[in-house]
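hiii, so i know i said id send this last week but things got crazy w the move. better late than never?? heres the sequnce for the chain we talked about at the cafe, plus the structure i predicted for it. fair warning i was half asleep when i ran it
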Amino acid sequence: MAQPRVIRQRIWDSLKAVARPDTRFHMSFSEFIPDFEGVEQATDRIAELDAWKAMKLAFVTPDNSMTELRRRLIAEGKAFVMSTYNMQRGFLYMAPGIVPVEAAPFAAWLDGMEHFARRIDLAELTTIGRFDFLATGASAVTSDGIRFGKGHTYFDLEWGMFTDLGLVDEKTPVAAIVHDVQVVDERLSPSETDIQVDYIATPSRLATVERRSRRPRGIKWEDLARDEILETPPLKELAHMRGIV
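okay and structure toks below
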């Protein structure tokens, strides 16, 4: 079986033909999760899900491939939370109706999110309700729903915090939006913190994943260095809540 680093390099080579360059990192896929040609069609597939239509509050990652999804959330007046890059500035909350219709495309970009959305800490987050839907990009995802590569560790940490606070549970739907070249048939052995997604949306199809096991819960504090906790504001806040630091 191919090693994850070999699979990643194969995907990065394929992505060069379909990825949309980042304004800072260009095509350095080790630095960011790219947007791609056909993301609108992939997002259409998510927007057709009953879970999407019924949601009241979503969580979305700051990946470039989530820009179109964030735009639709804003345009449809749906509330959502987005993590900042590597959680260094915590989370941003985009309330419904605060973005003028014509500004929705700009507001969906990371700079636009910083302009229109507001910072929200974990304590306040617990007062606005549970997440009905989570959406994420991925450097790569296996056909059985395991994400790997850039960004997946932060999403696992976010999930751990949200389960600790009762904001998500086993039934909360999780979707990944990726290009077809980012979906691999290789089977990987997931770690005890890996989050298996329920849906994989690509420009050509929507795959529903049958989960093999229950998702992890909480933060495994013993796996985190003290500096990592103290330098990541949401982790530091939760650690204080739990009397860990």
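btw The mean pLDDT is 93. thought thatd interest u
miss u guys!!
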